[in-house]
Amino acid sequence: MARLVRAGRCSARTLLHQLDWRPEHRLVVDVADGTILIQRHPGGRVLTDPRGALTLPAAPRQLCGICGGDRIVLAADLTRDRMTVYPMTVVVRLLAEHHARLADGRRGR
After folding, report:
1. What is the C-alpha separation between 16 and 18, in angstroms, rounded?
2. Pair type for strands 2-3 and 26-32
3. CA dist 57 to 46, 95, 108, Å?
4. pLDDT by residue (tens digit) across 20-73?
5. pTM for the predicted model, two decimal places
6. DSSP structure class, residue 68
């Protein structure tokens, strides 16, 4: 988890290290199903920060309803070399769906 500051920046040092994304690596940012997908790409417009911070561009944040001060969940997918940013609204929805399945007795399906 991280807290997004007003400028759209959050601390992501641990995940950047796990993904081996070094300072000044170029990243592409996309939006899918209310989440922000970030992937390393030589033509990317977003750069990794030497201090381990990640800056999320305004347009993807707006599309996902993320504002400065919001908490977000960051997840690294090492096999796909990408990071996913989950707004809390998506996390709450996913947890509610999971608990509804558990309550219905549909575990693991």
Report:
1. 6
2. unpaired
3. 8, 27, 36
4. 999 989 999 999 999 999 999 999 999 998 988 999 999 999 999 999 999 999
5. 0.86
6. T
